[in-house]
Amino acid sequence: MNEDVLPVETTETRTSTFPQERIRNFCIIAHVDHGKSTLADRLLELTGTVDPREMQEQVLDSMDLERERGVTIKASPVRMIYRAPDGQTYELNLIDTPGHVDFTYEVSRALAACEGAILVVDASQGIEAQTLANLFMALEQDLEIIPVVNKIDLPAARPDEVAAEVAALLGVDEAEVIRISAKEGTNVEQVLAAVVERIPPPSGNPAGPLRALIFDSQYDPYKGVVASVRVVDGVLRMGALLRMMSTGADFEPVEIGIFAPDMRSTGVLGPGEVGYVATGLKSVRDARVGDTITEAAHPAPAPLPGYKRLKPMVFAGIYPVESDDYNALRDALEKLQLNDAALTFEPETSQALGFGFRAGFLGMFHMEIVQERLEREYGLDVLFTAPSVAYKVRTTTGEELTIHSPAQLPEPTRIEAILEPWVRLEIYTPVEYIGPMMDLVMKRRGIFKRQDYIDQRRVLLVYEIPLSEILVDFYNELKARSRGYASMDYEFLEYRPGDLVKLDILVAGQPVDALSVIVHRDDAYRKGQKLVSRMKDVIPRQLFDVAIQAAIGKKVISRATVKALRKDVLAKCYGGDVTRKRKLLEKQKRGKKRLKMVGHVEIPQEAFMSVLKLEEE
Fold first, then answer.
1. In sequence order, what DSSP letters do the residues of 224-242 get, joined into one string?
2. Which pairs with CB-CB distance under 8 Å and at least 24 residues apart come from 82-90?
3. Which of 193, 200, 500, 585 could cross-link 418 (Cys pair, CB 3.0–4.6 Å)?
4. Is 389 left (phi over 0), alpha (psi -120 to 50) or beta?
């Protein structure tokens, strides 16, 4: 352990709080895979927060899913005690944030609990899409930015070039940009020194009524809802009756403490400090992210500004494979929603799949993570339907409806116009991949807006494109065509009318509502044909012919037939009268005809998944 560094307090409870002028609250922001979690590991090592024997990679990424995929999904807070070169001891509260575009809301919540941010940029890749998106969010919150160029140990590193880029972007002197290697630990001490010097201490009234902002929460079966909080005014103590200002729920805290990085009880949190409150509340609806905690006896006159509610962009049906798991799925979604503010859901039913939920997500990666968490953390076997975006429908009566699934679309005769969401898409790419990038976007109805050269090697392409076109595999295709060098970011623009139709899939003459998709009329034939061909491969053969059709309204645009299994009814006839053979064949024919009328086709999960893989070819 570094001798200039103090370990985190090990006492079970503290009677006083840390002096405000020696508290620093900051987060680490960056594009995906630029080294945020590795830098956090080095800071924890340097401050002696984690015992060297317990040290492992990505300490703050506690979920198995985060470790496997190498991405941060949840913002993770941790307290470090640091003795600066001037001999003063400081309390540093760090929040490690995600970098993926689908988890931007995690970053925005973390920023609200901080006074400063460390902006990490990869020395070989330079400024990327999410670097800028997260930086602008931090500047909106008026945070102090500490620019850091990471991975200077890489053979392809361009530390001086990238430092000049970052300095120009922020309008600061190049000497202020710290060049480090988080993996090797080079110059990481300078980052800690810069945090103490440049980031201002928190302001807040220690004697005022308590106001603590909830920036995250999770559910514990023994402690109830555990809220991650940043105390702004007053002191949070055990024994006081506390109140949620928006829901009005009163509770007495079960435990108050800090993240070090595991939960450690301290019994008190002062102004400017970051920690947790175990509320004991059993209902997840009583403790919302963005709410303000105050004392019931001396409530604050006004709550802190919370977070604007996020609008989900992608919707999909979630159904339990076993119908008995419906209640367990509802409970699991409620607990996930507490930990994930962007997830929304409401009950829905499907003829093919029974009872389930229509859930809203921020993007495909977000949807994938929710699916894996339901399966791993809650042991549920679930089926997700094809994702779709939220459309607006103008009816002939002048009404405007918002629909989240193709099944909600009114009759064609009642529709005047269907409006779809459009986004502003920014692609950062090396110059040599401009052609493949343009080809990719133009094929998906993208409208070119402008092209800006960032430097001699990299260019920014700006497009407007329907959100539905970049949902499924656009990001994978972007990475494949640019050998992993291009990056993207998008933001919602507006709803625009489009020539859109509902594509229905009929199996044995019955429409399967969960397989319906809303597509552009020009794409309907191609998508219908592809979907029918795929379904033919995944639907098991029956004892009768099964017709699979794609239709727009009453018009069938594509068809395939899954041929019947043929049982050899003549196996026992070794010659003899031919009429006997004819009788057996006629009997088989009548049986198949009857089966076709009453037979039920079981549709396997792969059929629903095939809708997702339409674009792969």
1. EEEEEEEEEES-EETTS-E
2. 82/5, 82/6, 82/46, 82/47, 82/192, 82/196, 83/4, 83/5, 83/6, 84/192, 84/193, 84/196, 85/4, 85/193, 88/22, 89/6, 89/22, 90/22, 90/23, 90/24, 90/196
3. 500
4. beta
Token pair in block for residue 258: 């800090």
340 — phi, psi (to 5°)? -140, 90
pLDDT in tens, 430-466: 888 888 888 888 888 888 888 888 777 778 889 998 8
Say whether both 408 and 532 belong to one domain.
no
Give the length of the chain.
617
**Domain termination residue (choose one: 329, 356, 385):** 385
Say which residues have a Cβ less than 8 Å from residue 486's Cβ, sequence separation at least 6.
Answer: 427, 428, 429, 430, 433, 437, 478, 479
Report the 3 state secondary structure along 60-100: CCCCHHHHHHCCCCCCEEEEEEEECCCCCEEEEEEEECCCC
Amino acid, res. 155: P
Check which CATH number belongs to the domain holding 363 and give it. Answer: 3.30.70.870
For the entire predicted model, the pTM comes to 0.65
CATH number of the domain enclosing 115: 3.40.50.300
The CATH number covering residue 484 comes to: 3.30.70.240
Say whether both 476 and 517 belong to one domain.
no
What Å distances lie between residue 203 and 108, 206, 226, 457, CA to CA? 20, 9, 25, 43
Rounded CA gap, 406 and 442, in Å? 25
Instruction: Please give the pLDDT value at position 602.
Output: 59
The structural domain count of the chain equals 5
At 115, list the tokens: 């006074």
599: CB partners within 8 A, 6+ apart: 508, 542, 543, 544
In terms of domains, do 215 and 136 share one? no
Q: Assign 576 a pLDDT band (cuts: 50, 70, 90).
A: low
Q: What is the pLDDT of residue 119?
A: 87
Closest by alpha carbon to 116, among 178, 50, 201?
201
